[in-house]
């Protein structure tokens, strides 16, 4: 259903782009036919990028996924910029209508309308290409490493300075492969965390297709181990159980509605993890009661949960800190406004009642390989006691 709705939206968007970029700027003839074909081809490329890997698998998908997703991003910004120019276009169009022609046979009003249409299209193209260039460079570049201190009540001073590397939304798939994983693993290991938390949306494909791309996760080095919770994308493949087995083989511990104590000296805290909300479609959804059943009430609890919205239940159960991803920080401004409508936080540290929520912007991307106003990151959360 999501893909059907998205296809309808994309079709309407491309119809608008055709009107403004082709019909309004080119007279009937060869140029208009070429422009029409290009807009239609762009729409087909996006549909292929969205559906092709699901239907035909990831093998060989890169040749159409890259141009398809890049056009997706470019088309989105062309649409937004042209919409922003609509008031200007309408105002100038009225001015053109009020301007009397110098000579009836020359049709200067028509010439001015064509000039305005072409100028608007050129401006939209220049702005959109510039944005996509910057956004693609950001998305494909090195993630930021953020150091975030978080004070927890009841944290034993022996655990002060305990470092948790939080990474999310790696999104291995048709556009991101083994090199992407290797860089992330190298950066995490260079940060020398005590524990690594991968909070969902690791893969967009099967173990057979992406097992080698995920293999470098076995090189993660943290004294207290590496832990994983499912994201919504883990349930978009029929291979989710195989992925959990593969991660266990790589030494990545999956917390499936369960918890484990993390100890240092005389101090300890409970690390818990819940499945993603989408898992409920497969009778594998979040179970907070089960996940927190082993939590020690006199020690702090750190919860791994892919979606920030899960903090509502976490707060009701007295969780001290929830670590999440999912939002990509909005990924492409101004679409972060849409994400903000359904999630309590886009990125960073916030509070819901007595529970602190930290949301990473993620180390990858989904859809267009573009990030604007939301740089990728790997976060090292440093736990501090209230008395430090």
Please give a structural write-up.
With 388 residues, the chain is of the alpha/beta class. It has two domains: 2-139, no CATH class; 143-385, Purple Acid Phosphatase, chain A, domain 2. The chain has ten helices and twelve strands. The chain has helices spanning 2-23, 30-56, 62-98, 108-140, 178-191, 207-214, 240-249, 288-291, 311-316, 336-340; strands spanning 144-152, 163-167, 195-198, 226-228, 252-254, 258-264, 267-273, 301-304, 321-324, 348-352, 355-359, 377-385. The longest helix is centred in the N-terminal third of the chain and has 37 residues, at 62-98.
User: How many domains is the backbone divided into?
Assistant: 2
Gross geometry: elongated
Number of strands: 12
> DSSP strand (E) fraction?
15-25%
Oligomer: single chain
- Report how far apart the termini are: 51 Å
Specify the biggest β-sheet.
6 strands, mixed
Order of helices and strands: HHHHEEHEHEHEEEHEHEHEEE
Helix-strand makeup class: alpha/beta
Sheet with the most strands: spatial strand order:
1-12-2-3-4-5
CATH architecture of the largest domain: 4-Layer Sandwich
Could you name the ranges where pLDDT drops below 50 across 5 or more consecutive residues?
A: none
Radius of gyration: 25 Å
Overall mean pLDDT = 93
Would you give the CATH topology of the largest domain? Purple Acid Phosphatase, chain A, domain 2
What's the CATH superfamily of the largest domain, by name? Metallo-dependent phosphatases
Helix content: 40-55%
Count the DSSP helices.
10
| CATH class call of the largest domain | Alpha Beta
Family: Belongs to the metallophosphoesterase superfamily.
GO molecular function, one term: metal ion binding
Cofactor: a divalent metal cation
GO biological process, one term: lipid A biosynthetic process
